[in-house]
Structure formats: C-alpha cells, structure tokens
Amino acid sequence: MNRRTFLSQSAITPLALSSSAVLAGAAQGGSQQYHLRYAPRIGWLELPLTRQIELYAQNGFRAFEYNGLPNHSDQEIGELRKKMDQLNMAMGVFVVNRGGWKPVAMPDKGGHKRFLEDVRRGVEIHKIVGNECATVTSGLTVPHLTFAQQTANCVEVLKRAAELVEKTKMVLVLEPLNHKVDHAGYFVVYSEHAAEIIGSVNHPNVRILFDMYHQQISEGNLINHIHQYWDWIGYFQIGDVPGRKEPYTGEVNWQNVFKAIHEKGYKGILGMEHGLSVPGEAGVKKCFDAYRKADSWS
Q1: Which of 221, 228, 210, 192 is nearest to 271 (CA)?
Q2: 248/254 Cα distance (integer angstroms)
Q3: What does the pLDDT look like over 109-154, one tens digit per residue?
Q4: Of 21, 93, 108, 226, which residue is 20 to 30 A from 233 by alpha carbon distance?
C-alpha cells in the first residue's frame, strides 16, 4: 500500500461501496460478538487503510494488525490512530526489525546496533498508534557461532530491548518461524527454544509470538504446546496448514484450538496473518464466515 492509497480516505470508490455493503451485510451490521479478539490484517483489499479498518469494525472485529506500519510517516500513523479512536479499534503487531530474515539480527552481535535502533523507532511508533505488541524476528543462523553462543546473543539483545520498552505498554514478541516450508535457515524455530530465550530475558515486556501456522509445521501438537509454554506467550497469529489461508482450508481444528485459548483466559489479540483462499471481497467474506464458525463453540 502506497502513501497515495493511504491518504485517499475521502475518495470512496465503487469497490469500497460494494465491499461495505457485502461485508457489513454478511456480518449483520457488525453485531457479531466473538469469544476472542481476532484481528484481520491490512492488505486483503485494495482500499485505503482507514477504510479497511472501518470494514473490519463493521464486521464485528475490534482489532487489526499491520506489519508494514513502520513504512509510513508519523503523520500517516497519526491519521490511523484518529480513525482507531473513532471506531474503538485496537492494534496488534507491526514488525519492528528490518534485518529479521538476515544473519545479522539477533544471533550475531554485529546486528545488535541496528536491531536496537529499530526497537527505538518501534517505541516512537507505539507512542503514536498505541499498538499492544510488536513482532521481533531472530534472523538466520550464523555458521561461525555455536548454537549456545547465538542463543546467548539473542538473550543479551532482548534484555537491552526490554529496557527500551519497559516504560511503555508495548510488548515485544519474538516469533519462531518454520524452516521446512518458508524460512530456511531461521534461528528460532521451536517453542522450547523461544521459551528458553524469553525465560532468560525474564521481562514482562518481552514474550513469544505463537504463530500457529509456523508451529503446526514445525512441531504440531498445538494445544499441548500452548499449555506448556503459556506463561511465555504474549500474542497469537493464525494460519491454516497447508497453504497459510483462513481457518477450514487445511488440517487444524480451529474451534478446538480457539476454545483452548479462551479457556486459558487469554485477553490479548490473535492476528489473522494469513492469505485468502478466494481473492477480493468474496474471499474476505468467506474468511469472516470461517471465523464465525471457528468461534461458535458453546
């Protein structure tokens, strides 16, 4: 999404009107009440950012997430915050660090200076938009260091990052990613390893991002792992396997998973960080129908 699109809030296009009618009607004017705080991601529709969150609010959602927010100016982020306040919408994550897919993020100290610069920028953004969490990624394994050295380097830099965010309401969430399908060479893959790092950091503003798409591929057994590492989890993301699309396009029993998270008393946001099995507004409607089904336990 470019800045022209972001700023064209007043130019409601035919697509916007169509989407508003179809999607709001599908959710009966946004009357849906969900057990959990599901957050659609920005980017499913080619509409101004503020128009997208209006549609999400009309369909009963009370939060959204947007990985690309740091690409916008402070003025644009401020405009987004105004719309959030008007709609009583919360924001989940954006991605903090630029080097998250490269060797020089956390495992190698050579990437720490830039990582901490990104965290400082993340704090500035948080002060404007008031997001609840922000994603940090470990980066790739570096061959010249042992696994233990790389783990220690991750702990060290996250402790320094914790000092930068501890006076805010923003929680940094470290995301394990799968290396079988999407992110070959990524360092933090398993829940156990993430919990080791976060437990060593031991700070309330630094937690795990449990992305259920990645963890289903890497280790499966989602509900048991959620229970096992509950104390260190700060945020969830969703995506079915295979394909990383909306619920009921793959193998996961989402009703059982969401019920287990709800029964644990989770009050945070679950980011809908996945694609759509059908493009455009028809796909968004299909996606929202899937979430109503997944959230329909008694």
Answers
A1: 210
A2: 7
A3: 999 999 999 999 999 999 999 999 999 999 999 999 999 999 999 9
A4: 108
- Interatomic CA distance for residues 292 and 17, integer angstroms: 23
Q: Residue 127 burial (CB < 10 Å; 0-12/13-18/19+)?
A: middle
The angle subtended at Cα 259 by Cα 229 and Cα 183, nearest 5°, is: 50
Q: Sign (positive/negative) of CA torsion 41, 42, 45, 51? A: positive
Give CA–CA dist 200/38, Å, rounded. 30
Report which DSSP code applies to 234.
Answer: E
Cis peptide before 242 (omega within 30 of 0): yes
Q: Specify the DSSP element, H or E, that contains 64.
A: strand 63-64
Radius of gyration from C-alpha coordinates of the chain: 19
Amino acid at 125: I
Question: Cβ–Cβ contacts within 10 Å for residue 3, how many?
Answer: 12
Name the pTM for this structure.
Answer: 0.92
C-alpha 186: how far from its chain's center? 18
How many C-beta neighbours within 10 Å does residue 66 have?
26
Express each pLDDT in 40-63 by its tens digit. 999 999 999 999 999 999 999 999
Q: Which residues contact 139 (CB under 8 A, 6 or more apart)?
A: 99, 100, 101, 102, 103, 104, 105, 106, 107, 108, 111, 186, 187
Measured CA distances, 16 to 45, 52, 158 (Å): 9, 9, 42
Residue 151, classified by CB atoms within 10 Å of its CB into exposed (0-12), middle (13-18) or buried (19+), is buried
Q: Which residue has the tokens 């759509």?
A: 276
- 3-state DSSP helix/strand/coil % of the chain, to nearest 5: 45, 10, 40
* pLDDT tens column, 60-118: 999 999 999 999 999 999 999 999 999 999 999 999 998 666 656 899 999 999 999 99
